[in-house]
Description:
By secondary structure, chain A is an alpha/beta fold. Chain A is built from seven helices and ten strands. Chain A is 33% helix and 27% strand.
Amino acid sequence: MSDEPIISIRGLRKIYHVGEVDVPALRGVDLDVQRGEFVSIVGPSGSGKSTLFYIVGGLTPPTAGSIRIAGQDLAGMTDAERTELRKTSLGFVFQKYNLLPTLTARDNIEIARHIAHKNGKPDPAFEDVLKLLGLSGRLNHRPNALSGGEQQRVAIARAIVNQPAIVLADEPTGNLDTENSNTVLGLLRDLNERTGQTILMITHNPEAAAYGHRLVRMRDGRIE
Amino acid sequence: MINKLVFENLKHRPIRTLLSIFAISIQVTMVLTLVGLSKGMLNDQTRRARGVGADILIRPPGGAIISSGGQMLAKIIPAIIDRQPHVKVASGTLLYGTDLFNYVTGIDLATFDQLNGGFRFVRGGPFQHPDDVMVDQLYASQHKLRVGDTANIMNHAWRVSGIYEPGMLARVVVPLATLQDLTGNTGKVSTVYVKVDDPSQTEAVIAELTKQLTAYKVYSMEDYTSLFSPANVPMLPQFIGVVIGLGVLVGFLVVFLSMYTAVLERTREIGVLKALGASPGYILNILLRETTLLAIGGSVLGIALAYVTRFAIARLVPGSLIQDIVYVWWPIAAGLAIVGALLGAVYPGLKAARQDAIEALAYE
Lengths: 224, 364
């Protein structure tokens, strides 16, 4: 069981229907990611890496092929089952942070727990993570009072608060300067080492990609 | 947590929130004011009818229970009514509507005064001349009339002979004969008030009068005033129904537009919530709670505004309109506001709940 990849993808295809035109975004992707692995996926725009991110994240179904996340077959799941999977097994970090602007940093983290029906106090270990993220003093601020780096650290905290098996990061440093990028990437690697969470990170940036254990290159909807 | 998000969302756009609450409150005020006016004016009519001091009231054949419609001949008074045992006095009055809310009442002062001892004058006194008019304090205050002034009513110049305490029959009273001539109703009255010498004989007198005046409506004053309810006023229940319908429509449209804009504006946030694992029901729940809060806010403000309309009516047209505060309608008006608002939130809510997460996350 422990040897089974946490993400197992075979022959994955995705075709978007744009008007009357079919646009293939993924043309047969095979990929295995082991539990606790930090994988960077790089590739130019249009290579299909975002589509792969959305399918692995359960945000859209594939057109063909198989994809298993933590032993569950994603291809045959209903919308409700994929919602459940996102709630329990996946955490997202986006390029634009995507914090809810009306809530404080603390509440942005709390709402992820609320959606997952975890209403008690967070795991004490999570307090250590908050310290590691350097957020302890900024939790009562709203996103508009936080720097980009701070917002992304809050987004990371939100992504891991429910201890998902997999954290998906889509260009997490895309909007950050070099110093903040290094901080965020260092944090992702630290979290991966401390908690053993699997991380799948999409990036344009080769320096960012170098933080992962393994680099996967994509081009024209395929893995090179 | 969800309540906090709802509350923060409403706080985030204070102008939109306040405008929505205000628009919903107009619906609530509209309903409460209309119901309050119906109730207030009917209660006032009841008080004034009781103030006459009669025991029995006779209305002409046909026409609604509460209206000025239908005239009957004054000659039935001496011919039939006065002849009944125990009838102390019978006095005919003629009611003439000058507009939707105002009436002029013609009375025969000699018999009318015997019903309960006459008007209690604040200033001036009873008619001296055929063209004299007596008005109550509310009418005098609304029309800024003093004793001796000339009042133009029904295109006729009247001299104000006296101003009396409100609560007696009508707000504007003129000599019966003058009104009969002016309105082409010579010899006719629209209501006959009867006083009996012994109240225990009222039912017996009513029974006898009913037997003799078969086409007429004979009521005890108690029964008559109990008929003063909105259901007995022609078209009033329908009118209230139309206003309620309009109110619900206003609430629906306001919330529809407000929530539709909110959903568009929060497209990206909805995508984030979906990515976090929020179900369509969770997202719908947020919007419905927001809507319910807006409707509750609108209801509270609407109730407060009903007090403002009552104050304004009492200050500006005390002689024409009276608005009561009808507490029993508070939950009804609030319920209607909530229903209208929730209906308005259904489409935007479903749109949000069905939003494609990827498109929502890509929304700029």
